[in-house]
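Exercise: predict the structure of this protein bound to flavin-adenine dinucleotide.
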Amino acid sequence: MEGVDILPHERSKTQFDVDAMKIVWAGSRHAFEVSDRMARLVASDPAFQKDNRSRLGRKELFKNTLRKATYAWKRILELRLTEEEAGRLRFFVDEPAFTDLHWGMFVPAIKGQGTEEQQQKWLPLAYKMQIIGCYAQTELGHGSNVQGLETTATFDPDKDEFVIHSPTLTSSKWWPGGLGKVSTHAVVYARLITNGEEHGVHGFIVQLRSLDDHMPLPGITIGDIGMKFGNGAYNTMDNGVLTFDHVRIPRNQMLMRVLQVTSEGKCVQSNVPRQLIYGTMVFVRQTIVADASSALSRAVCIATRYSAVRRQFGSQDGVETQVIDYKTQQNRLFPLLASAYAFRFVGEWLKWLYTDVTQRLQANDFSTLPEAHACTAGLKSLTTTATADAIEECRKLCGGHGYLCASGLPELFAVYVPACTYEGDNVVLLLQVARFLMKTVSQLGSGKKPIGTTAYLGRVQDLMQCRCEVQTVGIIYSINAAEDWLKPSVMLEAFEARSARMCVARAQNLGKFANPEDGFAELSADLVEAAVAHCQLIVVSKFLDKLQQDIPGNGVKQQLQNLCYIYALNLLHKHLGDFLSTGCITPKQASLANDQLRSLYSQVRPNAIALVDAFNYTDHYLGSVLGRYDGNVYPKLYEEAWKDPLNDSVLPDGYNEYIRPLLKQQLHNSRL
Ligand SMILES: CCCCCCCCCC/C=C\CCCCC/C=C/C(=O)SCCNC(=O)CCNC(=O)[C@H](O)C(C)(C)COP(=O)(O)OP(=O)(O)OC[C@H]1O[C@@H](n2cnc3c(N)ncnc32)[C@H](O)[C@@H]1OP(=O)(O)O
Ligand SMILES: Cc1cc2nc3c(=O)[nH]c(=O)nc-3n(C[C@H](O)[C@H](O)[C@H](O)COP(=O)(O)OP(=O)(O)OC[C@H]3O[C@@H](n4cnc5c(N)ncnc54)[C@H](O)[C@@H]3O)c2cc1C
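Solution:
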């Protein structure tokens, strides 16, 4: 069978309604239609062409991004796109740009931390892009430790101004995207000092460049921090360095929703908790979780289509085997396909949680803020780590051709992998989750009932008294055959019991230390494992919740069920040590789980291509010869190779200089 015939043949085997699945994936019919329209708009406009990025030098790459970002903005205005449509357009343009930080962090920081008055002044300018902003928090010396930032904002009551200053080299702002060459303004995070007293880190709106000639304002030094990992990749972004030499700004440019500074330099705390200063990060972490499923599904789409097209080794009748039919390939690929769906649904749920906490904050209800912080931090960490690893696994699943830029995977990896670091290093964020869990466990004895994602810890209070013998867990009696693993309550109980037991065991170990902080530091590696178990439980439980909903479309729910159990059973297999050592399941039940997993792979196999088609990605967005919708891989790969600048001429530059003299010299030597 020719390459172009394989994928249609695969599609003919589909056992579910792909169009209905497209709507489930998008979230709603409306979201699907918007997304589909924007994807086509971008794909059909030559201005958004992106297939030459890996061949461009830094300056060309950056200028190209400026062109695309400003053109996208022009189209947004011309077509009067809604915020939702504009967001999708930016997504399909698929090129990191200063606009991400302007819309994604600068605007949300003002909205979340500015007073009404400040919002009225700055937001209209930002919305029209009459000013362009970035988020300048991280410094050369400190990123994770926000309280350790060194930039100072000292109040001068005589002039009613703050003096922003970089006292050391390590206080230079370092990393902010959009800062290096574009932003006119920044929300700068600095230590507030009034009347000689320190009041912690706060955000300040600072103008950096002239609105007339774009030159840095007096006292300000700015530049780009240099090339980053990967050729094209994140190098479209001008991550920058910034120092201040006693730069003065009016008092009303401190973002004062949390704390007000009066003209006398007095600090007045509002009823809003101090942590709201970190609110922009919570917002962005939530968007990063939603984005993880996009990056992961893109890599999986490429690897799945290519695995169907690629044949390796013969079978009896002489037709070589499609590599997707190897059980080892399925065991590596299908859990990633399942994760893409799992992250999609947990991303939807997290968006709901974020909206809920935002509404509560507006009504002065701060009770769910710690949980929102733990969930956004933990899920950001879990999903980005898994996605970065998965993109690399997809490259390997595509064999040698996966290493070619034409596969789209090297660039995707290079653009994606910093997500494990920005918006909080993934380990640092898991430690935040661990703190939250340990606090929750320590309060169980006092009768405080945990709610939301930690409610399960309340249900296993017995564990606090060490009554955690295997026999107390219902799963032990419920699983006697492989199919028993397909019961939602059983799966949930297994993940809850594992996480609860890990949390309680860690809490008990912490209790052995005289100083809890010493204990936390000593046991931090174990604590991170408990945080991972808790986050995996959230993902599994939200996928199971999704299955409880009414899901229209022939066979759609069945496919989602298969994927949900693949996701959960694969985790169970990978973390078997946790499940066995906490006594949640027996070795025999673990073996049954594996049998069930293999059976699910066989059920997914005929639907694999349709399950990635349901992502509805255009070839433009995928940017991969291996992942083409038509499966016409080999002719196009061959064609692509000839586009390389090295093939512009038959003889390479340098032939006369290096190759010829070398060959002549060998000829001369051999005659000797
Ligand atoms: C029209 C066109 C439309 C186009 C749309 C475009 C949209 C684009 C969208 C794109 C979006 C994004 C693009 C991505 C680009 C990425 C760019 C990257 C940016 C960055 O990286 S910004 C910098 C991020 N930095 C960090 O994340 C730093 C990490 N560190 C921290 O967060 C914290 O310091 C900490 C969590 C490690 C805490 O440190 P610690 O010193 O222990 O804490 P304290 O400050 O003392 O506080 C302790 C208590 O506070 C609680 N806490 C901590 N953080 C939070 C929080 N965020 N919310 C609520 N509560 C918090 C903590 O739990 C402690 O509580 P306790 O006292 O225990 O009760
Ligand atoms: C592409 C990119 C874009 C960025 N954009 C922006 C931006 O727009 N604005 C902005 O302000 N910043 C930005 N950043 C900065 C980013 O937020 C920080 O790099 C990130 O928060 C990590 O902080 P760090 O660099 O200080 O890492 P470090 O904290 O120095 O981490 C180094 C190592 O130490 C470990 N570690 C640190 N603390 C602990 C601890 N307490 N316990 C155990 N291990 C620990 C970490 O796990 C890591 O392995 C960006 C970064 C990147 C890569």
